[in-house]
Amino acid sequence: MKTLIATALILASSSSFASKASFNNDSCNADISGGVKITSTAIEFSRDKKALYKIVDNEMLYVNDNKIALSDSQQSLVTDYAMRIRSAVPQVKGIALDAIDLASDGVNLAFNELLGEGNDISAEIGAQLSEIRKEIDEGFTHHKDIYFDENGFSGEDFFNEDFEQRIESAVEQTVQNSIGSLMIAVGQQMLFSGGDMDAFETRMEDFGEKMEHEMESRSNEIETRSEELCQSVIAIDALEDQLTDEIIELKDFNLLTTKVMAKDRKDLM
C-alpha cells in the first residue's frame, strides 16, 4: 500500500515537476533580479517595478523612453537577444504541460490498479490537474502578455513554491478525503490475496516497478528538453552580458545570472 501511494505522490509531486518546468534543475540555476514583460510587440525589463529598458519589434532599443542608436553588431545582438527570450516561452510551456500529463497518467495508473477504472480519486485528482494544465495552456499564448520575475510567471503561482504546493495538495487532500475508500480497497485486495500481506505487498511493488518503467522513457524525454531549456537560458544570459558590455546605456542592467556545474556542463557538450 505504501509503495503504491508513494509512487503516485512522487509522480504527481512538483518537486519532480519543478525541476523540469522551471529555470532551476540539477545542472542549471538561473537567478532573475528584475522583471521581464513579454507582449506581442515589445519586451520590457524592470527592477523594483521601475522600467529600465525595452526592445520593440525585436529590434528597436529604448532606455528611459529614448531610442538608442545602434551599430550593426549591436543591432544583431539586440535582435538575437529578443528572439531567444521569445523562443524560451514555448519551451517552458511545453515542458510544463508534458510534466503535468505525466503526473496525471501516473496517478491514474496507480489508483486504477488499486480501485479499478473510473474511481472517484483518479477522477478528482485528474480534474484538478486538468484545471492547472488549462491555466498554463491559456496563460502562455502569444495573445496574452507574459510577465515573470524572481517570484514566478505572470504574477501568478506558476512554477514557484506556491505552485509546487498546489500540485502536491491536489493529490494529498484528495487522498486524505478518500482514506475510507482506500482502506476498503486494501481490504478487498487482501481478501483476493487470501489474507497474505506479503503477497499483496509483492503485487503492489511489482506494479510500482512496471509503472516506473512505463513512465521512465517519457520522464527522460522531459528531462532532455529541460536540459535544452537550460542551454537556452545560458545563451540568453551570455547575450545579456554582451549587451551590457557593448551598449553603454545598458551597463548597469544585468538582470539574469546563470550557474552551471562544471560536470553537467561537460555532459551537455
The main pleated sheet reads as: 7 strands, antiparallel
Oligomer: single chain
Helix content: 55-70%
- Which residues form runs of ≥5 with pLDDT under 50? 1-24, 262-269
Structural class, judged by helices and strands? Answer: alpha+beta
General description of the model:
The chain is of the alpha+beta class. It is 64% helix and 14% strand. It has one domain. The chain contains eight helices and nine strands. The strands form two sheets. A seven-stranded antiparallel sheet has the order 6-5-4-3-2-7-8, with helices on one face. The protein has a two-stranded antiparallel ribbon with strand order 1-9. β2 and β3 (42-47) form a beta hairpin.
What characteristics describe this protein?
about 270 residues, alpha+beta, seven-stranded antiparallel beta sheet, two-stranded antiparallel sheet, 8 helices, 9 strands, disordered N terminus
Reconstruct the topology from this structure.
Layout (H helix, E strand, L loop, with lengths): L1 H11 L1 H8 L7 E4 L2 E4 L3 E6 L2 E7 L3 E4 L2 E2 L4 H44 L4 H20 L6 E4 L2 E2 L7 H17 L1 H14 L4 H50 L9 E4 L2 H7 L1
Antiparallel strand pairs: 1-9, 2-3, 2-7, 3-4, 4-5, 5-6, 7-8
Helix pairs in contact: 1-3, 2-3, 2-5, 3-4, 3-7, 4-5
Q: Can I get a quick summary?
A:
The chain has helices at residues 2-12, 14-21, 72-115, 120-139, 161-177, 179-192, 197-246, 262-268, and strands at residues 29-32, 35-38, 42-47, 50-56, 60-63, 66-67, 146-149, 152-153, 256-259. With 269 residues, it is α+β, with helices and mostly antiparallel strands.
